[in-house]
Amino acid sequence: MIETFTDAYRKTQDVITKETFEKDWDSFLKTKIKKLMGDDGLNDAEAASLTKLQNDIKYPKGAAKTSRSVEADAILEAAKQDDANKLQDRAAALKFLRHVYFISKRGAQSIWVCSPPKRYANWTYDEFAGLNKVELKSRLAHKTEIFSTGNMNKMSAGTQDALAWCQKVLISLASAKNKVKKDRDLVSRWFADENTDDAKLDALIEKLTAGFKKIRDVCNSNQLVFSDDTVDRSTQPNLWKTTYALVHDEKLHVIYVEKVLLGRSGTKLEWAITIVHELSHREIKTKDHFYSESGLKPNAGSFPSDKALENADNWGFYAANVNGALTKGKIQAVLKEP
């Protein structure tokens, strides 16, 4: 079963390499799209090829209008529909790429989004497995996506904010290392308990510096993907509805955006904190001991310093605090003992 974006991505690489598509499509996929899909992730230098693929599906042979049936027919034709052997996989590869987008580029940073149809309960390969041609065409026709354009724009803006936050955090941590009191106080506020002495605070500063460098580098990479967690959305709907975002243990840099973040206004604060939070899970292996609603104030009893350093929400709210993104009221509400 395909469970993650990385699984679907690797399967798509394999299908494009090994399977035969319609002649013109086969040449295009095995040259341009193969270059787009690098082993370490998507290659923004080939983003125009992804746009061409999508336009050729939406407007085949220069069609003036697109529709659900037009797209479905275009994919079936490109997938060499007269060859029933592994037709579902070839169609799944094209449908997967039809819903992957290059959203923005700013300096070294590039943002990608995978936004599959809302009606899919699985990644395309499992969604199409065992279908006959009529059933496959019906399933290919689904095109209303899980993410809106507004959602995608917030993913891009949130990543830019998270990158800026990390850069400012690293400046603050350098000052904290140099004994600047206001910067050391910020570290203490979110990570030190009453038993933390100067030596331990210095150790915390070193660990935070190493961690925020890793988060910064992912935010500033050209291969960060925001994706729907299609399987969790269908198999664990209650979890999906009550979660902001999550990450899985996989090679590619992927953040899965869940219902809570999609279903509210999505303030800049929420998106940036969530991105730092999730990338701390991915890059530093933080945990979710406590969330902000429970309180994030370190204390020697229920939430000692070592546990605060492991806690993803402390990383996110510390970054927000350094960047002046938290009101005094918000700080007071969050800094209670869990």
From TrEMBL:
Q: List the GO molecular function terms.
A: metalloendopeptidase activity
- Extract the Gene3D superfamilies matched here: Collagenase (Catalytic Domain) (3.40.390.10)
Q: Which residues form a coiled coil?
A: none
Task: Please name the CDD domains in this protein's record.
Answer: M35_like_1
Q: Where is the signal peptide?
A: none
Describe the location of the Lysine-specific metallo-endopeptidase domain by residue ranges.
174-320
Return the Pfam families for the record. Aspzincin_M35
Which SUPFAM superfamilies does the UniProt record give? Answer: Metalloproteases ('zincins'), catalytic domain
| Name the UniProt record assigns to this protein | Lysine-specific metallo-endopeptidase domain-containing protein
Organism, as annotated: Methylomonas methanica (strain DSM 25384 / MC09)
